[in-house]
Amino acid sequence: MRIVSHLLVLFGLLTLASCATVETRPSEQLIQEFRGETTETWRGEAQLADACAKVLDALMPGLSAEKELDRQQAEQTLEDLCVRAGRPGAGRNRAALCSAMAARIGPSTAQPARLWLLRQLARIGGRECVNGLTATLADADVKVRDAARRALQRNPDRRAAAALREELEVACNPRSREPLGGGIAEPAMQVRDPAWCVALIDAVAARRDPGDESLLVDLALRGDAPLSSSAGAGGTGSTESMIADEPVACAAVAALGDLGAADAVERIAARKASAPHSVLFGRIAEARLRCAERMLASRKPSEAANQYRKVYDSAERRDIRVAAMTGMAKALGAGALPFLLERMNDEDAAVRVAAAAAAVELPGDSVTTALADHLSSLPADAQVRLVDGLGSRGGTTARLAVLGALQSPTAEVRTAATRAMTHVGNATHVRLLARLAAERKGEEQKAARESLAALRDQKSDETAVISKFDEAAAYAIGSSPAPIQAELFRALKTRQTNPGLVVMTALSVIEAGDPIAQIAALECLGAMADEHATLKLIGSMHLFKEEAVRSAAEDAVVAASLRRPEGTRSSAPLAFLQSGGPSESASCLRILGRIGEPMGLEAIRTHLSATAEPVKEAAVRALCDWKDAAALPDVQSLMKTSTDATHRTLAVRAYVRLVRLPDAQRTPQQSLAMYDEALTLAKSPDEKKLVFSGMADLACVEALDRLEAALSDATLQAEAAVALCSVARNVCGGSPDRARAALNRVREYAAGDAVKGAADEALKHIDRYQGYITRWKFTGPYSVSGKDAGDLFDIPAGPEPGFDATAAATASLGQIEWRDLPVTDAKSPWLFDLNKAASGSNCCVYVRATLTCQAAAAARLEIGSDDCVKVWLNGKPVHANKSFRPLSEAADTVNVALNAGANDLLLKIVQGSGGWGVCCGVKAADGGNLQGLANNAP
């Protein structure tokens, strides 16, 4: 016994030591433990409460921070702890943590922390926090009070429901509020706040406690009678003391509907029957509907149907009647059909359509038969809805009804029936739908074409459907007029289910058919022809005498050829180029030009001097329509040698188009030289005007000289002035003074208001971007492993003032290599795409410029960045914006003071991901242009 006694004493001492260790454990270790990251120690009730208090006290400074960003870490930590505490089997931990949170939701805690604590209590709170939440219902802070209401609404303890009822009685019936801990009663808080009353009603209703019905009835009838004593102690205020506010009564009625308290709602309806047009009466109708829905959900269809019928008979509002009618259909099923058929003749169109919509959802073949029998006797709008529904129901009865509706005298009904044929039709209706598509117009024609293309036979498998449709269509094509043939080919092109049969049918039609059918067949061939069919199609070119048919044939060959692999697309037209007559050869040349393969260009070159005029004409036009710069030498030669004015104009237009194509290897000056040569070859003012239109894209100062020289020529003045305005805008970033001088020349010569307006707009553009920096040096990119863009914003590197290279954790942060930042857009040289210089993610670069001022001046920096930016002027920080955003000019404006002489401007641009760029303008303090400012290389 003595040994056992000693062991017990030793065990007790060890336990106390263990507890002492736990109590002195830092809060960070407790957080890790409560998160499940370390082994959890068993604690007694007092010790557990103390540990929770320590954790919350450690988190409170973060939870109370003013800025949302500063609260995020603490909020996330507390949320993690609450999620784990709310897991099954952790009831002790949950209760202790909730008690600790409830103790800290009072007015002495900062609002952000109170709201976050209440949010967690709404998720996991139970009996232990009801008293604290109840006291908070009287808080002066509206947001806190409402958060406490939501927490009580979700609290599973019955005392939470009682607290909400008590607060509702106080809010709706002014009286003194009894303090929870005794003492002197305090006046009720905001007893005349309807919004608070409505919120409390919603909370009470959300708990779905049948015992709340009496209170809600009293609230709905206030103004008729005071709160009854059955609603709770102190609920016997006089009528005069009650709040006569309609939203409260409406909310109470709605809550009764949510509870499914049908008898209570009927009592209110009887008391309010004298005011059928009031807002409250509408809420009563809605509550009746909700009661019926609860009956239906409880599998009481007969009771629900009776309730729906009462609502329908008494409702004034259309939406209520429609909802009640739809509910009856759900409750009675096929038994509701007589009622719905009667409603389909209602005076209200919305009711008629809704009745038809509900009827087509009823189950059973007998319903389909009844609907088909009554279809023709109904108003047109109800017929349209029934036809749609019959199409979806399918079956022989529905098919016959839909076919009958195709003959309706009302266009809307016929259109609906045509669409329904998609579902009820089969291959036997192919000719019928094609005829409708050919004969009808507008929406009917559109519906017929859509149904024909989507037609499916519901009784056959997919393979059989394909075969049946294509066979039926091919048969109908052979024995139908051209318009119907055209519609069938249009459907076959859309479906593309049996290319072999379709191509064979189309080839037979193009050889001997009406032009309308031929064109449709050719379009079909363009989408489906293989190489063999393409060759056969080219071989039939001589058959096409009409220009429209020949053009459609060329389109078909091009479409079919472009579906083949590159390098083989030109083989078919090349094979017939030599063997056909002039007309066929011309077609082949046009086709080769549109296909655009190098072998086609070679063939076009050889036919530029053809003796047959159609062939030569086709070769010239194919060359001038060529899609890339490979044709430039040939076009230039054509400009030099052609004696045909039309061909030369085509060549000039083609030359300008090809020079304007993007070419990374060609400088603006080289493009200008090409335009200069074109001007020397141009023999008419019109040809020179074409060249000027191309020069408008240039971004080189030398182009201004050429265009200014043309301003004195009256025949060229307008086009030269327009082009000059464009070039001036393009070069204003690097040469604003030269661009401004050229635009002033335009204003001297230009006679038209439009040209002067273009010059004025260009001058405004120059003024807007004067002072924007176009020359930077940059260094970077800099990054740190494991750090994102937000971290890098606060980590100094390389040239940043205050950076200590010797203390840097990463040696690479101290490496500085200044390089010229390349211009990425010659037309907007102040906008820099940093991805072109230092691509990456979660990194930063520094850009530097030297601003030289003739005299000290107040200035304004207009900064755009993608993403974050920091700015230093002459070594001093002047701006910082930790925003992740796209590049936008003047997104930030900063007032600064520039010294006389050189000023060093340094920007740090942090990249998250995606776009990355910078721009910066230097303006006068009032936003105007700063005189005597130069941007020099640093």
List the helices and strands and how they pair.
Layout lengths: L1 H22 L3 H9 L9 H19 L4 H18 L5 H12 L8 H14 L5 H7 L5 H13 L3 H15 L3 E2 L8 E2 L6 H13 L6 H8 L25 H14 L2 H10 L7 H19 L3 H14 L3 H15 L4 H7 L5 H11 L5 H10 L5 H14 L2 H10 L5 H14 L5 H10 L2 H13 L7 H17 L3 H14 L3 H13 L3 H14 L2 H9 L7 H16 L8 H7 L4 H14 L2 H9 L6 H12 L7 H10 L3 H16 L7 H14 L3 H11 L6 H9 L6 H15 L4 H14 L3 H17 L7 E6 L6 H5 L25 E2 L11 E2 L1 H4 L4 E11 L3 E10 L1 E6 L2 E6 L10 E7 L2 E11 L5 E8 L8 E4 L2
Antiparallel strand pairs: 1-2, 3-4, 3-6, 5-12, 6-11, 6-13, 7-10, 7-12, 8-9, 8-11
Summarize the structure.
Helices cover 59% and strands 8% of the residues. It is of the alpha+beta class and 938 residues long.
